[in-house]
From TrEMBL:
Cofactor(s) the protein requires to work: Fe(2+)
Domain TauD/TfdA-like: 145-382
Species in which this protein is naturally found: Drosophila suzukii
Similarity-based family: Belongs to the gamma-BBH/TMLD family.
Name listed for the protein in its UniProt record: Gamma-butyrobetaine dioxygenase
GO MF annotations in UniProt: 2-oxoglutarate-dependent dioxygenase activity; metal ion binding
Span of the signal peptide: none
Keywords: Carnitine biosynthesis, Dioxygenase, Iron, Metal-binding, Oxidoreductase
An individual GO BP term: carnitine biosynthetic process
Metabolic or biological pathway: Amine and polyamine biosynthesis; carnitine biosynthesis
Domain of life assignment: Eukaryota
PANTHER family: GAMMA-BUTYROBETAINE DIOXYGENASE, GAMMA-BUTYROBETAINE HYDROXYLASE-RELATED
GO cellular component, one term: mitochondrion
Amino acid sequence: MTQADRRDLVSLPLESALLQEQDQPRLVWVQDPDRQDMQFPDIWLRDNCRCKECFLPQTLSRLPQLWNSLDTSVRVHRQSVDAAQEILYIEWSDGHASQYPFSWLRERDFSSANRRRYLREFYRPEQKLWSGRDFEEIRKVFCYQELISCDSALQQWLLHLATFGVALVKNAPLEMDVLRRLSNRVGFMRRTTYGEEFSVRAQPGASNYAYLAAPLPLHTDMPYFEYLPGVTMLHTLEQSASPGGVNLLTDAFYVAEVMRERYPEQFRVLCQTPVDWADIGSEGDLQFHNIWRAPVINLDAEGRCVRINHSIPQRDSHFSVPLEQVRPWYEAMATFVGLAHEHSSGFKTTPGDVLTFDNLRLVHGRTGYDDTDRNVRHILGAFVDWDIVYSLLRVLRRASSPDAP
């Protein structure tokens, strides 16, 4: 606040002056010789003091003492800069003293460009959406053995998977532990009611629609879980010689954006109408009855797509919404399914392929195939969670770029 601003406040009634003072963002300006000046809210700097009373280096976390009696009226009493050492010093109105290295401040600068850079490059890679006609351009192949032995290749695979939602791994051995070894390179497998790994092949009396040789419609895996498995991995051990068994993939985030632009009311319906997703059955000795209620299209606080729920066989006959919402939902869903097929891409994996894709973003399916004793299709599947993938991406990025935030 300038001196002129303060003179203006003097002429105001005390109550009005206090209200105007509270409305002003109290910022600390830091002149940086290497870039544009930085500015930080004073309360944020006080909250993030790095001294031993406020911060525990071995856990890289703040201590809770300040928050036991947080004084949000705390102000900067005096500030100074050591230009040679590039350190900001602040004495606070509560008697506390803090110091902040410029390198630390630069990583956390509140400028819009720096915030975008951090979210895009370090928090999570920026997603690039695609239509089926673009699939061959975004499709990328990785070598299984390189992923097992080389951190750089592992980082490139996970980055591509996070960006485009799909990546194909080739030349994996036809062994039952391939997905476990790959998962262990990332972190660990996600266990579900179907175990850590599951076999997808035609089975008599199958308890899951995927275990039939019939066409498998586009879907996300396990929408009946609140905590949805993030990355699906499908290892082809045997492939049907029949014309069928073709994998189908669609970037459902792309479909959602098409609906947002062309059919905004139907987009709203799919974002706001909760749907009952369910899975009832047994696996070995385990009996289960899973239910989760959520819309088809899930958005975050900024309106971006973060999850798609869709599975025709696993949509419950219970539909716990008012009567007048039912038909609009069906009409919107018919549009969604039609667009998902229109923008899908089809290809057939071969033995030794591991298809990996984002289960929160892509819908996948397959065409029907003939299944006989001499014509078998056997896919082994497993999941890893996105939290584990993103964690490893940051670790690998910091290892390859020590200056990363």
